[in-house]
Amino acid sequence: MGVEGCTKCIKYLLFFLNFIFWLAGGVILGVALWLRHDPKTSNLLELELDGAHAPSTFYISVHILIAVGAVMMVVGFLGCYGAIQESQCLLGTFFACLVILFACEVAAGIWGFMHKDTVSTEMTNFYDTVYDKGMTQSITDPEKKHATATVLKVFHETLNCCGKGHGTSFLTKVTDTLGMTDICPQSGVSTSCHSRIEELFTDKIYLIGIAALVVAVIMIFEMIFSMVLCCGIRNSPVY
Asked: How far is CA 232 from CA 11, 66, 237, in A?
């Protein structure tokens, strides 16, 4: 027979929540893969100049998300199967996995909050280095300007911006007009690349934060229901 009454309702509710958890894992995995291969971030984070690479902090975070999404899908399946089979062993394993995942998510959330501006700051500093070197080489040493100009062009075309601020944007436009450089977008925009970089990565961090909060709430309910169901199975006269 199996469990009856309220415990049976909890059994199917836990199955439903685990199915949602499994779907959430798939969504996180999909979002992480999208962040990894998004043309804007990929174009910027794969840049290299004179052996210096763009900051890898963002990609490290994304790879962690990919692993979390995959683990969530496995744990969600384990919870669904354990609930339907009314297996104390599977439910206990599921609960232990949830506790570990929840602890990791809280730790990652604290770390992310403390370093929420790190990615954009690192990318801004990398851009400043490339911009200063590119402008200097373009004006003083035209033979070496191609490499830096190419990297700057990727920044400007990808983010549709030009320069570190309104002053440098105007200066770069002037040097482009005089033929000394060719790094601003053809659209002639004057938006600061600093603000564009901050917008790009801040928006993505908030997206990750919202997804993590939703998953954390689901995990709390799942831990409660899995323990209640496990106790119900243990106390059932059938077992």
From this structure: 9, 35, 10
Average pLDDT, the chain: 75
Our count of domains for the chain comes to 2
Nearest CA to 126 among 184, 185, 193, 53?
53
pLDDT digits (tens, 9 = 90+) for 192-238: 888 888 887 777 677 777 777 888 888 888 888 888 888 877 776 65
Q: What is the pTM of this model?
A: 0.61
For the chain, how big is the Rg over CA atoms in Å? 25
Residue 1 lies in a domain: no
Residue 127 shares a structural domain with residue 222:
no
In a domain, 200, yes or no: no
The better pLDDT of the pair 84, 119 is held by 84
> 226 and 141, same structural domain?
no
